[in-house]
Amino acid sequence: MTRPQGPSGLVIVDKPGGLTSHGVVSRMRRLAGTRRVGHAGTLDPMATGVLIIGVEKATRLLGHLALTEKEYTGTIRLGQTTVTDDAEGEVTASVAATGVTREAVDAGIAVLTGPIQQVPSKVSAIKVNGVRSYTRVREGEDFELPARPVTVSSFTVQDMRAARAVGPDGAATDVVDLDVTVVCSSGTYIRALARDLGAGLGVGGHLTALRRTRVGPYGLDGARTLEQLEVSFGVLPIEEAAAAAFPRWDADAEQAKLLANGVRITVPALAAGPNAVFGPDGRFLALVEEDKGKAKIVAGFAQ
């Protein structure tokens, strides 16, 4: 007997620290009563904040949501370098950062703002010839990751303060902690920004805290903790989720019927990228892109 499909939609989770994104998915599968659950945009175990979970048909939205702009708050420590570019890795070098000025920090940040070429952290999930980069690091392999184009729309220092940090040899180092906010494109590594900022200043750097505050239109104000979801689980209906995340096109009855059958119909001028198509009854039908004046369906939801 086939189990009836539950409601399709998104769950905006405020992920706690110390848990992997896959761990959150496992919890959501239990709460939703289905294995058809996924997430958009991995958060490292150390990081907290907005993690978008898709349930049932809404899993088809996730690949498109993962490409949207993201916003973070975090703390960068200048004066120490780690193997992972964040606080979870072993400290590999310590250099006193007492001589670092705010003017130098602002100049370093300016270099890392706008369209840039970024080399991802080696301890990441990026695949190199089919093997995860972090796996290659664990196996002791020596390799380099190619730089990738990303866009850092905003990189702002909220606070700068002196601190002391202990290295692996037990010796204390004078470091500088920066509380920052970053708005960036998908694929940007905040810990790589910390690494590159520290390297440019000549003292090294790594990320000590990270919280994702927004993914596209979904922010912390609409997120729920795992404890809250255990008490009252529910999804943001797929119609509301699509309307919030994508430009909307309301099709008439004939257009809706043809689209539901996969026909590439002539469309009005659409916004760039995926557009959410709704029928006259308000039902979410598809994500489409304009292709030579025709509607190219990139994900269908009519069935």
UniProtKB/TrEMBL annotation:
GO terms for molecular function: RNA binding; tRNA pseudouridine(55) synthase activity. The active site is at 44 (nucleophile). Residues 29-190 form the Pseudouridine synthase II N-terminal domain. Residues 191-231 form the tRNA pseudouridylate synthase B C-terminal domain. It is an enzyme of class 5 (isomerase). Responsible for synthesis of pseudouridine from uracil-55 in the psi GC loop of transfer RNAs. Its EC number is 5.4.99.25. Residues 246-301 form the tRNA pseudouridine synthase II TruB subfamily 2 C-terminal domain. The gene is truB. This is tRNA pseudouridine synthase B. Belongs to the pseudouridine synthase TruB family. Type 1 subfamily. One of its GO terms (biological process) is tRNA pseudouridine synthesis. NCBIfam families: TruB. Pfam families: TruB_C, TruB_C_2, TruB_N. Keywords: Isomerase, tRNA processing. It comes from Actinacidiphila rubida. It catalyses: uridine(55) in tRNA = pseudouridine(55) in tRNA.
